[in-house]
Amino acid sequence: MNSSDRRYLFIVNPIAGGGSKDSCMDFLKRTFEKRNIPVHTFETTGKNDFEQAQKAIDKAQPDTVVAVGGDGTINLVAQLLRNTDLRFGIIPLGSANGMAVELGIPSNFEDATRVLLYGDTRPLDALLINETYLSLHLSDIGLNAKVVKRFEEEKLRGMGSYIRQFISELFQLRPNKFSLTLDGRKPFRKKANMIVLANATKYGTGIAVNPDGKLDDGYFEICVIKPFIWYQFFPILFSFLAGRVRNSPHVNIYQCQTAHIINRDEEILQIDGEVIGNPKTVDVKILPQAYQVIVPAR
C-alpha cells in the first residue's frame, strides 16, 4: 500500500514529557496534508481514555494508529490494537521513551515522522500480566517501581526528577521475598531488591538490564536484582551500562514463556512506566508477535 492510501490516527498525550505538543502536531499535519494523507487525532485526558480512544478508532477507521507521547501512551495504544491487524506507530515525546529507544525510533519528532512514512514494520511480542495488563517494554516489582511511584506523585517531570527520586529510594533499600515458578517448573524462592519482567533490553536511561533479550523471539526474561547495600549500586550500574550484567554476582536472569510470582512483601508493581499497585501474585505470559510496529527502514 502506498503511503498516500493510508489513514492515520494519532493518539496524543498532551502532558507527556512536560512540554507543549503544538509544534509536533503542526509539523505532522503539514507533512501529511502535503502528501494528501488523511490525519485524525485524539487527545488523552486521563479519564476514560481507552473507551474514548476506541470510539475515535471506530470513527476514523485508520490502518495505522500512532502513539504520540511516552511509554504510558504506547501502552494505551497497545491495549487498543490488541487482536487487530492495524499498524502501530510511535512518536516519542515522553520523559524517558524507553520503548522508542529500544526500537531505534529517533527522539526528534521530525525524524520520527519520517519513520512513519518511510519505515518498515516488524513483529513485536508483548507480555500479558495478571490476564489484564500489557507490557511491551519493561515492568518491575520493587526498587524502580517505588521510584516511578515517587515520580508520579511529584509535580516536576523530566529525567532530573526521576534521578532525584531514585537516589532518595536507594538509601532506603530493603530486600523483599519472592517465590517464582517459571514455565510450570519447580518453584524457587529469591530475596531481591527488584524483579524485572523484560520483553526489551534496556530502560530509557540506557541501563541494559537484559542485554540479550529480543522483542520478537517468543520469550521474555525475569531479571532478579539480588539484595545489595547502597554503595554496591555503582559497580552494578557499571555492569548495566557496559552490557555485562550477566557477569554480575548481583543479578540472575531466567528466560521463560510463563511465570507465576508470589510477591510475599506485596511490593509495588509498575508496568511500562505506570504504577499498578501491590499485587500478592503476578502471573505473566508471552503473547508472541502480537503487533506490527513501524521502525526505521533496514
UniProtKB/TrEMBL annotation:
A Pfam family that the UniProt record links to this protein: DAGK_cat
Recorded GO MF terms: ATP binding; kinase activity
Keywords: ATP-binding, Kinase, Nucleotide-binding, Transferase
Entry's transmembrane regions: none
Positions of the DAGKc domain: 3-133
SMART domains per the UniProt record, alphabetical: DAGKc
Annotated InterPro entries: ATP-NAD_kinase_N, Diacylglycerol/lipid_kinase, Diacylglycerol_kinase_cat_dom, Lipid_Phosphate_FormReg, NAD/diacylglycerol_kinase_sf, YegS/DAGK_C
GO BP annotation list: phospholipid biosynthetic process
Name of the protein this chain belongs to: Diacylglycerol kinase family lipid kinase
Native organism taxonomy: Bacteria, Pseudomonadati, Bacteroidota, Cytophagia, Cytophagales
